[in-house]
Amino acid sequence: MLLSLRGDNPIGDDLYLRAMYDTRVFQLLLQCRADVNSYTRNAPPLLHRVLELRRRIRIDHSNDNIIVRILLDAGADMDRLWIRCHSDGTPHRASLPLALAAAGVDLDLVTMLIEAGADVNGHEPMSRRSYTRPLIHLVENPNLSFGRQFQVICKLLELGADPNVRAIHYHGRRPALLDIVLMIGLLIDHGADLEQLDHHGRNFAQRHPPNGFLWGIDNVLEERRSPRILMKVALDRKLPGLLPVKYILPKTEAALHKLQTTPETRENKAAVTEAGKELKDCWGLCRSIYDTFTLDQLPVELRCFWGENHDHIERLLASLTD
């Protein structure tokens, strides 16, 4: 009956899949006592399958929320870890319903699973030394508007999602700088430990920009944006430990050296101007640090550099505008 309503050829992939995705099919199977948590080595439980279909097959997903609700009401295990294995039985990939939903495009499904009691800290093993969690899937998802994404991330954190997760990557996404600042601030607000080391021996600042949030982005863009991300968070929240000193100090020293060693000739006018712009940009970052923190809060190398070069750099920059 359902196939006759849907179209002519039940073997055609699109029509067949649409028919099988009808909510009435699920209701009929459940009435006949279908086990919503059954699975095989190569076929996940129904809840996993429904959440995974959105990413793999282009069919009408308008029934997703209804079907997920039907499955949850029928006792689907929202915390079941399904592990897909290779032919020899070794694990290939693992998935949790909440993580699958977080990697999708409908955050209402994430909210539905959370409200139903899904574990916000469920682990999906990726290798012997690493794992992923729903929070990571949600932060990394490149298909969401930041406003809605931020709301659901807040909800996960409010419900106890651990903010001390492995480095989060954006996988080619080009988020606005202030979006990333807001994201880092949110993790800190919910207890991210700035000094805790991951299994690579990196603390929070070391595993986030430029090593984390801007992975895959053009190197020139990354070089300009990455330190400004941690700088913005450090300045806004008065956290000197997040200052990207190992970037700012060498960059400023190099810009100063470049300006000092570029001859001021007619032929070099453009080079001098460019060197001056680089130094002005770096010095602007240094000024903002000294305007925000007291000297005793700053690393020794920054204090020394400021004391030794402040007057000289100010004169150099002033001379460029004369």
TrEMBL record:
Highest taxon above the source species: Eukaryota
Alphabetized InterPro entries for the sequence: Ankyrin_rpt, Ankyrin_rpt-contain_sf
Record keywords: ANK repeat, Repeat
Identification of the protein by name: Ankyrin
Start-end of each ANK repeat: 93-125
Gene3D superfamilies the record matches: Ankyrin repeat-containing domain
Species for this entry: Mytilinidion resinicola
